[in-house]
Amino acid sequence: MPETTLNEVNIYYELKGNLNSNKVIFFLNGVMASTNSWALMLPAYEKAGYKIVLHDFRGQLKSEKPESPWTFQDHIEDIFCLMDFLKIEKASFIGTSYGGEAALCFAVNYPDKCDSIVIIDSVSELNTLLEIAVSSWITAAETGNAEAFFRLLLPWLYSNSYLEKNKTELMERAKLFADLPPDYLKGQIQLYKTFLELDITKKLYQIKAPALVVCGENDILKPAFFSEIISKNIPKSELAILPDCGHVAIFEKYNELNNIIINFFTENGLYCLAEEKNEM
Hints:
CATH class: Alpha Beta
Strand content: 15-25%
Strand order of the largest sheet: 1-2-4-3-5-6-7-8
Mean pLDDT: 94
Structural class: alpha/beta
CATH architecture: 3-Layer(aba) Sandwich
Number of strands: 8
CATH topology: Rossmann fold
């Protein structure tokens, strides 16, 4: 299992795709997730010839869960150190939810390290409803019942149409949560506490890279107005809304999402196959 010590924390990572490519994408996980959450989306980027970097944030399933609290600054320093460890000078970043928020923080702090950013179902600030919702998740995680914890979060994460089509599968997935390591919920609690400190809207103007901001039309956890705030405050950005889609667009609408991202990459000269054709 590949891992490296960054900032005195063991970070799990994976490399996929064309490892010799100078077009690099970091995929940044949602808060409950691990690297395997990108499985539906990755084939398109592997086929295109990108070098792909996946990792679990500190506190997530396969990375270390430190006793002391951490911040988004710690996350972005972990990413910076991982880039240095892998000898990557610059990359595009695709992040969903918590991962999108980490991508925003990274692009603010290290604008020259970013070819582009894709922000999916994320926020740059909180409102009262979101703060109360996430605080309730902390309370649920503190019970230690991972299966009940997952069931509690389901209505926040998926659209009604997706829940109707995939109810049986999701109930089976809930049962698997009971088999997760005991420290999984411990990590989740601190990740949520870190999220509750997020307030970066006023710094978004510092982002130099082109940005694509995407939100599910039916995302009730982080509704589209949060994405509008992000898009309006990044100088070079565009906004896309996915119809009939909840918070986890990377599951619900991965084909549509990939099409939007690949068009964005192509328009900004970052799509591998498009570049190869231009060179022929």
